[in-house]
From TrEMBL:
It holds the Pfam family SBP_bac_3. This is Polar amino acid transport system substrate-binding protein. CDD domains: PBP2_MidA_like. Residues 67-296 form the Solute-binding protein family 3/N-terminal domain. Keywords: Signal. It comes from Kitasatospora gansuensis. Residues 1-38 form the signal peptide. InterPro entries: Solute-binding_3/MltF_N.
Amino acid sequence: MTVRNPRTRLFAAGAVLATGSLLLTACGSSGSSSPSGAASPSGSVQAVTADASLAALVPADVKSSGKLVVAVDASYAPNEFKDDKGNIVGMDVDLANAVAKKLGLTADVQNSPFTAIIPGISAKKFQLGMSSFTDTKEREQTVDMVTYFTAGTSSAVKKGNPEKVSADDLCGKKIAVQTGTTQADAIKDTINPACAKAGKATVPNDGDKFDLQTDVTTALVSGRDQVMMADSPVIDYAIKQTNGQLEKLGGTTDSAPYGVVVAKGSDLTKAVQGAIQALIADGTYKSILSKWGVEAGAVDKSVINGATS
């Protein structure tokens, strides 16, 4: 659901593939399990105890309810998705549960379409959004973002790259992306204008867009599309879960922070930031990331509104 200094990279044929502020990590979508069924997390997460000083920062109305209502878009494995039993699981889910416990609360994790989460925060339907949101200045205009992870944009093709797709030239290729992600925006706003300027064919339909990230993966596996683009941990996980049917195309570009979404100006923002920092300090954070195999995205410090673009 990647990075902040706008920059570009030349295509082999002279077009430009932007890997800057638009090719950023984004987020999941709702309602489906991982492509091949259950996840295969390894390791366990230590018990989390409440921190009285952090719990004191929780607004009275939230404290009285005893819970944090957390929205996720549960088809973005391994960050948030449904297992074979229909339970919402994943890295973000474990972190949400740990943050809630650190604040003396219980997490009520609810599935939601990705594009409905920020409006739901503003409407007070949810208190937190933890769904692989990239922290951007645009999002910070309407909500607060508490950073907790770093990811980049990656792409995948079918195993062996039978259509010989080049990571340096995606012009004219059929690309599957999830609706509402920054990868989808990048095709429309950056890649296709660059292809047109270079006199090359554009990506059809500004990319084939799907509400569910699992459907993005299926589109590539089935051959409907030639490439899929998503956040780096999602691409890595899809490659593992499709049993060798896919492979990574090129490297990971433009790392950027994920942020927990909180209502703008809420006292809860500082409580969440403090809870994440405490989880980093006591080792719980690292154990959660290790459980889901996403240690590469670990950060040392959580900040409020840390976007650079």
